[in-house]
């Protein structure tokens, strides 16, 4: 926080200063009217044991204000967490867009990003299986630009008119409001089974992409094909990609489920704490560009939001980076009241006729009107553009501007102001796309293929990713009570891949249907063509090798070598990781030299699922196992079976074998050994540089995929 005060402020931060409420330390408690209050713990009453008096304006105001604290939560994406930061382009993008914030590498544009889950209410757990929202508001010099994306590049439906149907299906069942934050129930899968267009995105939902380890470790996508427009009016189709510097990493389902109980705020806390500690999340913005001449060069329609443009076909060009470096001051004022709108665009960026996008362009404004209680929500500090605002809009609920002068165009009384800029120059002008056609309510035939890209995704997955997808389908469909729904979903899967279908069917008590001829491929579903896009596999998104703000547990007990713990903390902490000493109880442990060593946390208050890796340091072998009464044992076993890096030093290697008898240890070579993410060094004194390097690179790689327990 001290750092925050010292850093130079951008235009948005300076604007926030203007709106910050009076500092509580600057004087005594007052009413909303500024009247100083003498006492706030007893209401005004007639006599010591008498009734409360209506004239107690402080009491009435206090209770009324409390009664009115809640506003409607977002109908979707209710649970979220956000942060401020900045975006800077690598170089001028003037060749394909005139957008001012994409011109000058020396200009930083302030941003606010809100990450979210979709299905659950505001109080639901973070680590549910769900799409994650990734919405960015750029406070550009030409007005606010909102890129309201997700961590999947595709969406469940093709036309926004189906959005209420989809959301009603995925939300909890209407009669009992179960399940919270989960898609594993009949209505969602009934919808899926009847709407083949959902299938591609369902493949993403069943993959580990739907349970990210951290908002700092997931991609973001604009999903739709948008349009870049140059200063001379030339248009280029564009898809937006955010790529996290730390790589794309996920939880495994077992961990995700346990996290919901151990820390329902797992992702929110990670984002907050990382920023507080100075480990600022960073993402690279990339674009896929398609010239207008190539609009029909693909075997899918660019306007169909259930399709990606494979990166192997159109490479992603990096154009800039975004860093999130400030937490909000107040969750409600900022993260809850931020209002995104897909139609908030700036000169140089425009829409396409994607029917999903067109519907969104109506829905987001409409939803803010009800959620934020009227049309003046752009005046709420978090939403205010840093560009000047001069409109003829007036009045309405919660008007906070004191407008002067007349409010119509044209006028002669205020000198014709605000002036009309006219076409060209700084004004936004809509891209002059030629459109003509009959009014019809009909899906374009070019949107018809629902299977090829579902299969492309499946074909692009590594072995472990496929196993996790099969397990996810089995879990979700196994929760569906209606057998005919299970059967219909499996019949749909038969259009994607025969192996996938058989594996899912076998787990949910459904007969494997005959292989479908879907996608034009006889016998094996659309996957038989075996087209693959390596860019889709998380295996190929390792990140920059950094372990910034990764959480590493060191299990300690009496007799531990305190100097070794200090060296571990220095070495891994030097890489940006958080290293915590966990002991059976809080306070201190007695180190081998007889001194007290502080403990960071008591083992029973935490769990392996909250850490990325664990180390068993040198110390009396077995002491930890007996002293921790099972907490250490469970910690190490969970870490091991979840494929996390496990390190052991000196006699800690013996403790590891005692706690997890299933562990495979390499033969003692007298130095550092690495076997499937288990890094050991039986010599005393360490950690050596070699151990440090091997352990840090295992943490950066996130997980060893070959552990038998992870293979299902
Ligand atoms: Fe949406 C919120 C992303 C389709 C209607 N959506 C919302 C948020 C994100 C997305 C990230 C949360 C914004 C925030 O943090 O405040 N939505 C998407 C993506 C879509 C998509 C990537 C498909 C490509 N959405 C979509 C459709 C409709 C909506 C088709 C309606 C026709 N979405 C909404 C909404 C929400 C919303 C009801 C709820 C709260 C809000 O807008 O501000 O208007």
TrEMBL record:
Q: Where is the composition biased (Gly residues)?
A: 517-527
Its biological purpose: Decomposes hydrogen peroxide into water and oxygen; serves to protect cells from the toxic effects of hydrogen peroxide.
Similarity comment: Belongs to the catalase family. HPII subfamily.
Catalytic reaction(s) noted: 2 H2O2 = O2 + 2 H2O
Any idea of its EC number? Answer: 1.11.1.6
**One MF term in the entry's GO annotations:** catalase activity
Domain named Catalase core is located at: 30-417
Matches recorded under PANTHER family: CATALASE (PTHR42821), CATALASE-B (PTHR42821:SF1)
Cite the CDD domains for this sequence: GATase1_catalase
The record's listing under InterPro entries reads: Catalase, Catalase_AS, Catalase_clade2, Catalase_clade2_helical, Catalase_core, Catalase_haem_BS, Catalase_immune_responsive, Catalase_large_C
The family database entries (Pfam families) matched by this protein are listed as:
Catalase, Catalase-rel, Catalase_C
Keywords annotated in UniProt = Heme, Hydrogen peroxide, Iron, Metal-binding, Oxidoreductase, Peroxidase
Q: Which co-factors does it depend on?
A: heme
Please list the residue ranges that the record marks as compositionally biased, kind Basic and acidic residues. 1-23
For this entry, the protein name equals Catalase
Q: Has the keyword Hydrolase been applied to this entry?
A: no
SMART domains noted in UniProt: Catalase
Record region (Disordered): 1-36, 517-542
């Amino acid at each position: 926080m001290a750092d925050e005060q010292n850093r130079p402020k951008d235009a948005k931060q300076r604007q926030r200063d203007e709106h910050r409420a009076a500092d509580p330390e600057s004087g005594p408690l007052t009413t909303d009217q500024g009247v100083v209050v003498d006492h706030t713990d007893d209401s005004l009453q007639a006599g010591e044991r008498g009734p409360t008096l209506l004239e107690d304006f402080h009491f009435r105001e206090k209770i009324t204000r409390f009664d009115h604290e809640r506003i409607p939560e977002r109908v979707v994406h209710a649970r979220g967490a956000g942060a401020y930061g900045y975006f800077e382009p690598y170089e001028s993008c003037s060749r394909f867009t005139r957008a001012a914030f994409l011109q000058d590498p020396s200009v930083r544009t302030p941003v606010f990003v809100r990450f979210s889950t979709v299905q659950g209410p505001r109080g639901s757990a973070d680590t549910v299986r769900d799409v994650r929202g990734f919405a960015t508001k750029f406070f550009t010099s030409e007005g606010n630009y909102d890129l309201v994306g997700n961590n999947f590049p595709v969406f469940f439906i093709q036309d926004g008119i189906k959005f209420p149907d989809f959301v009603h299906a995925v939300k909890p069942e209407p009669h009992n409001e179960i399940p919270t934050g989960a898609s594993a129930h009949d209505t969602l899968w009934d919808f899926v089974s009847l709407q083949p267009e959902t299938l591609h995105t369902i493949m993403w939902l069943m993959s580990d992409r739907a349970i990210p380890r951290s908002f700092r470790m997931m991609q973001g996508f604009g999903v739709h094909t948008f349009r870049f427009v140059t200063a001379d009016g030339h248009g280029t189709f564009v898809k937006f990609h955010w790529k996290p510097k730390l790589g794309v990493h996920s939880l495994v389902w077992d961990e995700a489920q346990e996290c919901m109980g151990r820390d329902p705020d797992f992702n929110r806390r990670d984002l907050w704490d990382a920023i507080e500690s100075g480990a600022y999340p960073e993402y690279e913005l990339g674009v896929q560009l398609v010239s207008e001449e190539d609009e029909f060069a693909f075997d899918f329609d660019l306007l169909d939001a259930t399709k990606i443009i494979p990166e192997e076909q159109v490479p992603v060009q990096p154009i800039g980076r975004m860093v999130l470096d400030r937490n909000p001051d107040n969750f409600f004022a900022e993260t809850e009241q931020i209002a995104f709108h897909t139609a908030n665009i700036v000169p140089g960026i425009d829409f396409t006729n994607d029917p999903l996008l067109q519907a969104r362009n109506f829905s987001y404004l409409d939803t803010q009107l009800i959620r934020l209680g009227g049309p003046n929500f752009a005046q709420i500090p978090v939403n205010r553009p840093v560009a000047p605002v001069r409109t003829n809009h007036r009045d309405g609920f919660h008007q906070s501007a004191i407008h002067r002068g007349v409010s119509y165009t044209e006028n002669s009384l205020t000198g014709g102001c605000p002036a009309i800029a006219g076409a060209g120059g700084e004004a936004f002008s809509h891209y002059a796309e030629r459109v003509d056609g009959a009014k019809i309510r009909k899906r374009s035939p070019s949107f018809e293929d629902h299977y090829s890209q579902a299969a492309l995704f499946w074909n692009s997955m590594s072995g472990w990713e496929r196993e996790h997808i099969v397990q996810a389908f089995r879990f979700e469909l196994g929760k569906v009570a209606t057998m005919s729904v299970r059967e219909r979903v499996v019949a749909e899967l038969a259009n994607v891949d025969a192996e996938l279908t058989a594996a899912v069917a076998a787990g949910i008590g459904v007969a494997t249907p005959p292989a479908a001829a879907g996608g034009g491929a006889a016998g094996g579903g659309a996957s038989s063509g075996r087209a693959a896009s390596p860019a889709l596999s998380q295996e190929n998104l390792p990140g920059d090798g950094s372990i910034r703000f990764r959480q590493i547990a060191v299990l300690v007990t009496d007799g531990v070598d305190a100097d070794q713990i200090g060296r571990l903390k220095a070495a891994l902490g030097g890489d940006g990781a958080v290293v915590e000493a966990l002991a059976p109880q809080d306070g201190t442990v007695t180190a081998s030299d007889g001194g007290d060593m502080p403990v960071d946390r008591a083992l029973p208050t935490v769990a392996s699922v909250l850490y990325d890796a664990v180390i068993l340091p040198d110390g009396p072998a077995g002491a930890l196992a007996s002293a921790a009464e099972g907490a250490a044992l469970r910690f190490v076993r969970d870490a091991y079976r979840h494929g996390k890096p496990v390190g052991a030093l000196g006699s800690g290697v013996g403790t590891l074998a005692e706690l997890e008898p299933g562990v495979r240890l390499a033969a003692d070579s007298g130095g550092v050994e690495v076997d499937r993410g288990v890094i050991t060094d039986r010599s005393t004194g360490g950690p050596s540089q070699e151990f440090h390097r091997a352990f840090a690179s295992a943490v950066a790689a996130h997980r060893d995929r070959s552990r038998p327990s992870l293979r299902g």
